[in-house]
Amino acid sequence: MSEIFNVGKIKYEGPKSKNPLAFKYYDADRVIMGKKMKEHLPFAMAWWHNLCAEGTDMFGRGVADKSFGAERGTMEHAKAKVDVGFEFMQKLGIEYFCFHDVDIVPEADDIKETNRRLDEITDYILEKMNETGIKCLWGTANMFSNPRFCNGAGSSNSAEVFAFAAAQVKKALDLTVKLGGRGYVFWGGREGYETLLNTDVKFEQDNIARLMKMAVEYGRAIGFTGDFYIEPKPKEPMKHQYDFDAATAIGFLKAHGLDKDFKMNIEANHATLAGHTFEHDLRISAINGMLGSIDANQGDYLLGWDTDEFPFDVYTATMCMLEVLNAGGLTGGFNFDAKNRRSSYTYEDMFIGFILGMDTFALGLIKAAELIEDGRLDEFKKERYSSYYNTEIGQKILSDSTSLEELAAYAEKLGNAKLPGSGRQEMLESIINSVLFG
Ligand code: XLS
Ligand code: NI
Ligand code: NI
């Protein structure tokens, strides 16, 4: 098979390298805290951004040519994307990919024909996976592009559309199992509303839960042992999306008895759209035992939408990796749900985007491990709550063996409380700087 990219295998050349087509920090076999970098960081390629998106936006057509020598909308094109995708992943040393059903084949007018195409292409993908050892991180169904989903999928006001959503979830689960995917994602892009004037929120949320329950039941019956994920996002394309953030999604899962089968797939840019930091949503997921996977990208603080940029911000990557290391790692992986800027339209730019992202996360991993080994952050945090451990009243509170009456009597005896210890944010931030740049 001929190669599309005039680029060789990307190698690690170290921080001094000026070669744009080399890793500066990502050194797959380097051991950090007892594990190889590539084991800490199971990177994945998002089929849609990398092999499908041509840089269209609301105001302009595509600028990047992703025809890969075939006519768009044909099965030849679908196969060319498989060839190109596997060549790309092999050259970068990326071991996983993620896909939506309609990323891998052109959707037909009749779902039976779409499903036939999906069977055909996944046979071909499976061959490539066996040849290369590349694996599937997660699959999903695109239930937001087709016009039938204009009022949502599981949340649609139309029972017929709900049935089509169910059919797509069923097929996407079949494919995920066929490809041995670690996870299955629900991103509810159209699961939300524009106005309460026409929306029965409870009805819609109950129906989304119904769809998810059926997915769990079916998935487990066909041998899917991985995690289901919700990927929270507060808005875009809808004004209000039901999976606003990790806390909201976790509450929803618990309310509907779905929390044993689901975890979170946290996307950096979605967390910031919700008014949180990336690390906030990671922490909320982790403390609930639901930190599953990550969509690794970054947004732009000046823009109010999902810009899906390749991660470049080392502070944020460090904070992310601190959360991941402290949680004991991910059961999922790091999917670059990221795209080149519209004006970076060459094949080389595709590689450079991934090199940037992989290097940024490698740096984040290295620095997070140094922060953990340094120990000052952990120590400070422990000390900050020490009054609960080294006083009698604190012990009573923690062991649930006191009452409002007893605490009120205690307060009255004291008359007033001392100021709690200083938060020392600036000191902690300067520790971060000294570890990052020292
Ligand atoms: C969109 C989402 C989407 C999901 C998969 O904002 O990030 O790409 O990851 O449907
Ligand atoms: Ni995403
Ligand atoms: Ni997104």
CATH fold naming of the largest domain: TIM Barrel
Give helix and strand order, one letter per element, not per position. Answer: EEEEHEHHEHHEHEEHEEHEHHEHEHHHHH
Number of helices: 16
Helicity, as a percent range: 40-55%
How many strands, what sense, and barrel or not for the largest sheet?
8 strands, parallel, barrel
User: Which molecules are bound besides the chains?
Assistant: D-xylose, nickel (II) ion
CATH class of the largest domain: Alpha Beta
User: Helix/strand/pairing class, anyone?
Assistant: alpha/beta
Radius of gyration: 24 Å
The CATH superfamily of the largest domain is known as Divalent-metal-dependent TIM barrel enzymes
Low-pLDDT residue intervals, each spanning 5 or more residues: none
Average the pLDDT over all residues and give the rounded result. 98
Number of domains as seen in the coordinates: 2
Major β-sheet strand ordering: 5-6-7-8-10-12-13-14
* Principal-axis shape: globular
Architecture (CATH level 2) name of the largest domain: Alpha-Beta Barrel
Summarize this, please?
The chain is α/β, with parallel strands linked by helices and 438 residues long.
